[in-house]
């Protein structure tokens, strides 16, 4: 079974998840009224507000999308939605179109109540396949806090290898040629 379908609306389908790219209006609404935002996507209201870290991420992604609307899919947050439950369980973001080295930077987060269910791994794998559809992408880069063992497992399960670390951060790379 092909576990990934690219929809007309730009979302990416996994087995249990749908990754929905947030356009300018959706990013704004997520900051103004998170309940209305969830309802606008025809989703179950899971949380009443975004936490401070995610609000900051939404503001940055909105700024980036407004600066480069042509490449918005490479700059936005994507909602990670449980298909059957129609509920947001987290977000995954790209921090730009492939740079001169062919790198795409990715970050993700799963809401606390939905962790340890494999959602992050499924989302990263689906996003990885979408990213590698672009021939300019040679690798995906992500970083995690050194003590975030769950996130390390997600990246390892998605095909990432550790390539650099310091006292606080570990940097990971998913190489296109090793992930065919």
UniProtKB/TrEMBL annotation:
Organism domain of life: Bacteria
Pfam families: Acetyltransf_3 (PF13302)
Coiled coil (UniProt feature): none
InterPro entries on file: Acyl_CoA_acyltransferase (IPR016181), GNAT_dom (IPR000182), N-acetyltransferase (IPR051531)
A molecular function GO annotation: acyltransferase activity, transferring groups other than amino-acyl groups
CDD domains: NAT_SF
SUPFAM superfamilies: Acyl-CoA N-acyltransferases (Nat)
Protein name (Swiss-Prot/TrEMBL): Uncharacterized protein
Organism: Clostridium felsineum
The organism's taxonomic lineage, starting at the top: Bacteria, Bacillati, Bacillota, Clostridia, Eubacteriales
